[in-house]
Amino acid sequence: MKNTRVARRYARALIELAEKGQLESWGSELERLAAVVDSPELEARLASPELSNTARQEAMAKIAERLNLSFPLRSLAVVIARHGRIAEASAIADAYRELVDQMLGRERATLTFAVEPSDEEKSRVLAGLEAIAKKKIIPTVKVDKELLGGVVAELGGKTYDGSLAGRLHEAQLKLAGQA
Predict the structure, then answer these.
(1) Taking the C-alpha atoms of 73, 20, 94 and 25 in order, what is their torsion angle to the nearest 10 degrees?
(2) Which CATH architecture has domain 4-102?
């Protein structure tokens, strides 16, 4: 289980070191580091009890160097190894992204369309979500052919179902007297 409180602490410390122009690039570097150390083969090796703490720190330093990370991110990689938090790398990256989004007045949304949307369709949905959230929306677009038509948007823990499948389901419930 990932410790989000610890992850937020590391993320907040990194943000405090960053200048405004570095926030985005450090976030990308942190996500790259997390993706590498979370790979199943590397994760198992780094978590092995046969690996000494010193060797684990050296391994993280080499990984950070090979990824060409900036000095603060290289230092963070060694620090999380020293404190036995390598498994928290993804949670730290997620917490960092959330904190930066809050600072910059952004929110992330998942948009699921029935077919690949045009730029105009995406823009229209994003404009509606930005009006609801009163923030800039960063979308992740997915396609699910089972929707038949329309879009389902997930934003801030809420689901906005504008899909044809959702509307058919609502109609079915109304006809059955359950809605």
Answers:
(1) -50
(2) Orthogonal Bundle (1.10)
